[in-house]
Amino acid sequence: MAIRLMAMMFVLHIILLLNANVPSTYARLLGNKTMSKEKVIRRYLVENGLGLTPPMGWSSWNHFGCDVNESIVRETADAMVSSGLANLGYHYLNLDDCWAELNRDSEGNMVPNTATFPSGMKALADYVHNKGLKLGIYSDAGTLTCSKRMPGSLGHEEQDAKTFASWGIDYLKYDNCENNGISPKERYPPMSEALMKSGRSIFFSMCEWGWEDPATWAKSVGNSWRTTGDIEDNWNSMTSIADSNNKWASYAGPGGWNDPDMLEVGNGGMTTEEYRSHFSIWALAKAPLLVGCDIRAMDNTTYELITNSEVIAVNQDKLGVQGKKVKSTNDLEVWAGPLSENKLAVILWNRSSSNATVIASWSEIGLEPEAIVDARDLWEHSTQLFVSKEISAEIDSHACKMYVLTPTS
Ligand SMILES: *[C@@H]1O[C@H](CO)[C@@H](O)[C@H](O)[C@H]1NC(C)=O
Ligand SMILES: *[C@@H]1O[C@H](CO)[C@@H](O)[C@H](O)[C@H]1NC(C)=O
Ligand SMILES: *[C@@H]1O[C@H](CO)[C@@H](O)[C@H](O)[C@H]1NC(C)=O
Ligand SMILES: *[C@@H]1O[C@H](CO)[C@@H](O)[C@H](O)[C@H]1NC(C)=O
Ligand SMILES: CC(=O)N[C@H]1CO[C@H](CO)[C@@H](O)[C@@H]1O
């Protein structure tokens, strides 16, 4: 009886803590006069708890572009739950460009497009929240968004952040078009602060396309920052973005993540093995896992790729260290990174045009030469016991193998 009561009180305590978290964290940190504003925001971005691991969910852009509407979002929310994606951690449903009217209302507020979002954003957020999911929205650190069909938030940061909070928005992607030539370093912090003051925990996803090396400064502005231009649904775009993003690996960690853009898996422009590589590298690189296909109609192959819970576990590992490319010879690559509990994630990737044997020796991936490991193949779901010195595999062109290595002693 006493134990049950204590357990209940404990749960209650956690619930209270979670609810009280937002404004009080910010106020408490602001009250500490020994910290610079920059440091306060940096601490807040960790303590708000939103970016302890990379965000997971879905975004409308890669598949729907501007042709998105509230029925699509509701049906996608239903599919997220019925397909089991929600249970695997895909929680954000993110609107991208084109959700608003071109003109603000007489009080200067952004207005949902009356034709495509006739019920409004509050109703949509309620629907999504009732499914146990979260709703993301989109704006731009400029005068208009990239489609030029809706206003940007430059100069309206506080008002728009309050509007988003009042609707129950959980995530903001903030784009970089129509920016009047002003540096991102001046345009992004005002929205960061506006979100913190909004009274609601809102994940801040910065999208300045890697212009001013955001990895070096954005950790005190947002919970994630794009490191590159937009991804396209083809092998060349995906691999070149993976490489550009890789340069900034050492800057990522709990609270702030490099973002090489949303997933294209399931959109049809790459082969199954190319999509498997795409998903594996994004997971290892601790990238946001934002599915970009129409999940209401995804095929079985897509489903198999994006629901691999062992690969997702690498992405969501609590250590939060971005894996990186550790070897590259003639398009045969090894990517690796540490995980919690002394484990190691490794990808052998054949980027060449014919099949090949790819080898990772222990010294190349940071293991002691005498280490003995169990090697879990995350795509075959099989384990090789007592592997020594190196791991290797024959791999088809553009395919990869992904392992978690666990030292046996
Ligand atoms: C204020 O911040 C400093 C630096 O992070 C920390 O050492 C100190 O304990 C904080 N003070 C209070 C009262 O939280
Ligand atoms: C949303 O788009 C779909 C497909 O284009 C269409 O069938 C549906 O009626 C639209 N719903 C709204 C609210 O615009
Ligand atoms: C996809 O998977 C479902 C359920 O496992 C199965 O019934 C269906 O036949 C599969 N479709 C194809 C095209 O393989
Ligand atoms: C690699 O290519 C050779 C020759 O074409 C073939 O015999 C072998 O089965 C291929 N291996 C794989 C893993 O595809
Ligand atoms: C470009 C490249 O490295 N291609 C290699 C792919 O794998 C085959 C088989 O091992 C090699 O012969 C190619 O040189």
From TrEMBL:
Catalyzed reaction equations: Hydrolysis of terminal, non-reducing alpha-D-galactose residues in alpha-D-galactosides, including galactose oligosaccharides, galactomannans and galactolipids
Keywords: Disulfide bond, Glycosidase, Hydrolase, Signal
Cellular component terms per the entry's GO annotation: plant-type cell wall
Signal peptide residue numbers: 1-27
EC number: 3.2.1.22
GO molecular function: alpha-galactosidase activity
InterPro entries: Aldolase_TIM, GH, Glyco_hydro_27, Glyco_hydro_27/36_CS, Glyco_hydro_b, Melibiase_C
A Pfam family annotated for this UniProt entry: Melibiase_C
Gene Ontology process terms (BP): carbohydrate metabolic process
Xref: CDD domains: GH27
Domain Alpha galactosidase C-terminal: 330-405
Family classification: Belongs to the glycosyl hydrolase 27 family.
Official protein name in the record: Alpha-galactosidase
Species classification: Eukaryota, Viridiplantae, Streptophyta, Embryophyta, Tracheophyta
